[in-house]
Specification:
mainly beta; OB fold (Dihydrolipoamide Acetyltransferase, E2P); five-stranded mixed β-barrel; 2 helices; 7 strands
């Protein structure tokens, strides 16, 4: 039987990204995001639920998240579920399910204003090679800070 482990999430960071390094120097970033869901109950009242998700980001992508993201930043995450298991010093077995990010897209501008896409000044990093090495797109700060360029006037759009 085939297997599929794919996660797509859009939400806001609940804290600033934290970064640490492995003994070999690889950056590991920890992100925490909140995803808000609003729905109507059977009684007709609007109810809001929040789902909190822990994210792990590796390599240059982790460093870039630390450089550009802050608490409240809107982001899009594409990745897979990862189960971490360990034993405490007291002998208790622990586990946690989190998302290992393979693609992080920054949806907001530097000021935290959400709703921007990549074409409108957003920023994407994604894994280019599945052979174990990671090669991420990393725009210069000048590219990220510039306002978006509108290449077509509104009257030129065909719809």
């Amino acid at each position: 039987m085939a297997s599929l482990n794919r996660v797509f999430l859009i939400g806001n960071l609940t804290r600033d990204p934290e970064i640490r390094h492995t003994p070999k120097g690889t950056a590991v970033g920890d992100l925490s995001m909140a995803i808000n869901i609003t729905y109507r109950t059977q009684e007709g009242a609007d109810k809001e639920e929040v789902c909190y998700v822990d994210i792990v980001v590796w390599g240059r992508q982790a460093e870039t998240c630390k450089d550009y993201l802050t608490k409240g930043s809107p982001i899009f995450i594409e990745g897979r579920l990862q189960l971490d298991q360990w034993e405490t010093q007291q002998g208790e077995k622990r586990s946690r399910l989190r998302v290992r990010a393979e693609r992080v897209q920054f949806l907001g501008g530097r000021g935290g204003s959400g709703g921007q896409s990549r074409a409108a000044g957003g920023y994407t990093q994604e894994r280019r090679d599945s052979g174990g090495t990671r090669d991420y797109d990393r725009p210069s700060r000048e590219t990220y800070d510039e306002p978006p360029i509108n290449e077509a006037a509104d009257d030129e759009i065909p719809f």
